[in-house]
User: Fold Adenine DNA glycosylase from Pedobacter xixiisoli.
Amino acid sequence: MSFQSEIVKWYLSNKRDLPWRDTTDPYVIWLSEIILQQTRVEQGKPYFLKFLENFPNVSAFASASEEQVLKLWQGLGYYSRGRNMLYTARYVVANYGGQFPTSYEQLIKLKGVGSYTAAAISSFSSNEQQAVVDGNVYRVLSRYFGIEEPINSNLGQKMFSELAKELIIDQEPAIYNQAIMEFGALQCKPKSPVCSECPVQLGCYAFKHKKIDQLPVKLKKVKVRKRWFNYFVGITGDEILTKQRMPGDVWQHLYDFPLIETEEEVSMTSNEFLTQVEKLFGKDLELKVLEGKKHILTHQIIYVQFFAIDNYIVNFNQHAEIKSVKIEAFKQLPHPKIIGDFIEKHID
DNA sequence: AATACGGGGAG
DNA sequence: CTCCCAGTATT
Assistant:
């Protein structure tokens, strides 16, 4: 039996029951695929259900506000996915009359849809002959066929997508694509794959040459930037100070607090820091240290320090980015995880 | 070709 | 800690 047939056979008796598996609605599949980009199934599942409930079709999605979308997205990360989804939903309503496209050619033009997602949606929704190449596929193919070219080099990407394209010939695209990904996720896992019970063990290059733990090859080591975010929590009556984050940095368009970023941990005896703070909030300011947190992202470690402030005066003309809003309204806004956690814990 | 973009789980 | 997850956009 061929590699593909074995994979499909394995899939049919081992697949998980997932809420996006029993549909060919391209909108629903799009929803699931965007959410699952760089996101584990278990983490994405509740978000998928929540989004589908709030936006049962693309027209409903298109009429949402960005704040609404980002609020639902809160905690999932890579927020550009949410912003791009809204853009795309509106684009589909405006240009395709709310009929979500199913062809690779049209899908690949959509914002937030790359080669993987276009292949996934087109194959799952209309059985188009497009091979998905995601992290799972890279791993399975590199191990089984013994491809040592780095999966994130230019040549590597080309080799893997060529191979994937050949393998899907004569296969049922929707089933086979899902099968190889599920196989990678459950059987041919990154760490301690279940080779002892593997249906394609005999043909597997990596198993035969004891290179399971060396494949796939991946270049890159991300360098991590350290940052110090000093947040100021200012509450007067039923209003709180907030600020929307701008493009060019993490958490674009999400709302946090007035912030002074420093090159290192600040000390309360640092004149430079206190001068900055007074410049922002006035001379009569009362400053109190709240909790500190370490927030770890892929490319940066953010040391977050919260301060409570009282008797502050903000010049809203000089600092148009800062606003004072009702606390109840503030809670409805989308926040970075670290801010959302703080609100939940400290602001009633 | 490199880098930014979140957050979390597994080992 | 490190790795990596149903990747994409930008430089």
The longest helix of chain A spans residues 80-96. Residues 38-40, 42-43, 75-81, 152-154, 190-192, 220, 222-223, 249-252, 295-300, 336-337 of chain A lie near DNA strand B (CB under 10 Å from a C1'). Residues 3-214 of chain A form a domain with the Endonuclease III; domain 1 fold (CATH 1.10.340.30).
